[in-house]
Amino acid sequence: MASAQVLTVERRDRLTLIVRLLVAATITYNIVEAVVAISAGTIASSTALIGFGLDSIVEVASAAAVAWQFSAATHEKREAREKVALKLIAIAFFALAAYVTVESVRALIGAEAAEHSTVGIVLAAVSLAVMPALSLAQRRAGRELGSASAVADSKQTMLCTYLSAVLLVGLVVNSVFGWWWADPAAALVIAALAVKEGREAWKGDNCCAPVGLTLADQSGKDEDCDDGCCSPAADSPTMITIMKASKPSRTDA
Description:
Elements: E1 5-8, H1 9-44, H2 47-69, H3 75-108, H4 118-145, H5 148-177, H6 182-203, E2 240-243
Parallel strand pairs: 1-2
Helix pairs in contact: 1-2, 1-4, 2-3, 2-5, 2-6, 3-6, 4-5, 5-6
């Protein structure tokens, strides 16, 4: 039988603060990222850059919806808000995918070719370096805290890394080789990922543990979870015991 991992109240509070700070940093960065990407994309007529910026806005809106959900005083209200929040997030992703797809098709049939964007390339490269660091830090804190939701949110952050890589390849190929179709092609990949996120949000796919609870608080609900972030495969602790720091018990061996 696996032994329970002991987590003091002080350590839990510290980890909770770390996760909140990391989420705040991620949201702040996404806001800056969105402004820069959309501005640079408009100047360069880059559908991929604009789509990347719009995705950042959706990610911020998603975090805001979750914050609104958990600001409710009762569990029943939080559950009701969750359904509304997930539907709104899904619709936002579908709208993003539709816009980017239409603009990409217009670009591919020769409506307007994207120009070179140094700002876009730098932004994609910076995001490719920043997002994995934020995701890894949040995932480590979430796993130690026993919060499946924090781990799941770190995976959302990692998605930005993949988007950054797709954007960077598209912009560089267009700039170096003059392959104008690389930009709308990259945008179509971003649209496909947006559809995937939208479908998951619409279905309500998420981890079993709500924000702020440990896996031990789920009272045996893990069997209903098919998300790897709250399964043993994700290295999440099977049980977290929250206790106050105190003198050792005499029964300790």
